[in-house]
Amino acid sequence: MTSIKGRAPKETDVPATPETTDAPETTDAGGRLTLAEILGLFAGGRLPLRFTAYDGSSAGPPDAALGLELKTPRGTTYLATGRGDLGLARAYIAGDLEIHGVHPGDPYELLKALADELVFRMPPPRAMAKVVRSIGVEHLRPIAPPPQEVPARWRRVAEGLRHSKARDAEAIHHHYDVSNTFYEWVLGPSMTYTCACYPSIDASLDEAQENKYRLVFEKLRLKPGDRLLDVGCGWGGMVRYAARRGVRATGVTLSREQTSWAQQAIAEEGLTDLAEVRHGDYRDIREEGFDAVSSIGLLEHIGVRNYPSYFRFLQSRLRPGGLLLNHCITRPDNRSRPSTRGFIDRYVFPDGELTGSGRIVTEAQDAGLEVLHEENLRPHYAMTLRDWCTNLVDHWEEAVAEVGLPTAKVWGLYMAGSRLAFEGGGIQLHQVLAVRPGDRGGVGDRPLRPWWTP
User: Could you identify which of 108, 124, 205, 349 might form a hypothetical disulfide with 387, taking C-beta atoms 3.0 to 4.6 angstroms apart as the criterion?
Assistant: First the structure.
């Protein structure tokens, strides 16, 4: 059996590339586990994976098509000290853990093999004691995470400022201002970073995104001359779709990069008389009397405790009889609390919070809206993420050159993992359609049954 030998990483020791070590000396004392055995233990034991490690050990089927390779002592520390999926993500993003048999732009098959909600399980206490003896206590001392995770100033402030306007702006900047060029490669020509709606199993991503906008447009019963407010409008896809059909559309986003891209696209399409995208917070919109409001992928950033004020504000922007379409990722229940310790929060969506569709419906109703319809598009988001990963793989070299290898790996891991979560039902995508009733409860000339094509 072998043991780890070498210096313990310092808290500030986070080099850009994995460190190299001398070959460890071999020992059979104490019945200690090899690093590959430990890696397999944390990954769940009997899996169709090959595990190798820098101590020269290996475990798992020799002919396995998929594998994990632990390359440095720093990776051992990340795995031993990171809770849930965080240790795996840190080691992988820093280059201390390599994946084999899959492309880094789409590690879906490897994550599917790991399967159990994409987290390494802590072994039973007796096995964990053997792990500690095998790796040494020096690897149980937390070290600095990769630079992509280092909390910015706004992440260190008091919890009471969570979802303030300033902090929300910083969170949106972290995620959406990566690079418009990078997003063009991943999202494709539609530049739409929300769940598509596939009209058929073999439809393309662009067809599915166009179909999603059609579905939202028709649910909102928009017609030429109507006024639409699109909050959290992204790169202006819904705004431009509506404007092409004669609707006066106003969008708002906290991302400067999205605003710049959308304004240019509006000008190039000759839609400036009907379409507008503003850089700012949706809460600063002063106009009222909109015929419809669309919120496509914004609620995830709002914070569950802010749902009452969010729905009250959107209700106040609508005219009596006006319609609201809320499209967002949800949990399969209404009890889960948001986590700020996992990979998604630390690397992808800072301050993102999800809850169930029941909570969303309740808050909309309590704000004075009448819910007319809701549906779950969960399978469609799994297909959307599949196609985004395909785009990332196809443009991998350009993406790495644009944003760097660690960030590109973050996106491949995040999208492939999210696809698996949507497929398994761990997260869902719900559209909720509601109306602001008139003074006497009137909702206009609505048809008795849904009026849009399924």
Answer: 205
> Which tokens is 88 given?
């795996």
Structure pTM? 0.86
Question: 343 and 407 share a domain?
Answer: yes
- Tell me whether residue 71 is exposed, middle or buried, using C-beta atoms within 10 angstroms of its C-beta: 0 to 12, 13 to 18, 19 or more: buried
Dihedral of the alpha carbons of 47, 50, 53, 55, in degrees to the nearest 10: 100
β-strand partners of 277: 251
Residue 35: domain span: 29-140
Q: Which residues of the chain have pLDDT under 50?
A: 1-29, 117-119, 152-160
Query: What was the pLDDT predicted at 43?
Result: 63
Any bridge partners for residue 323, and if so which? 292, 435
Element (H, E) at 421: helix 405-424
Q: Count the Cβ atoms, other than its own, within 10 Å of residue 300.
A: 17
Do the beta carbons of residue 333 and residue 406 sit within 8 Å?
no
Say which amino acid occupies 368.
G
Say which residues have a Cβ less than 8 Å from residue 150's Cβ, sequence separation at least 6. Answer: 144
Distance of alpha carbon 196 from alpha carbon 208, whole angstroms: 5
Would residue 65 count as lying in a domain? Answer: yes
Helix (H) or strand (E) holding 281: none
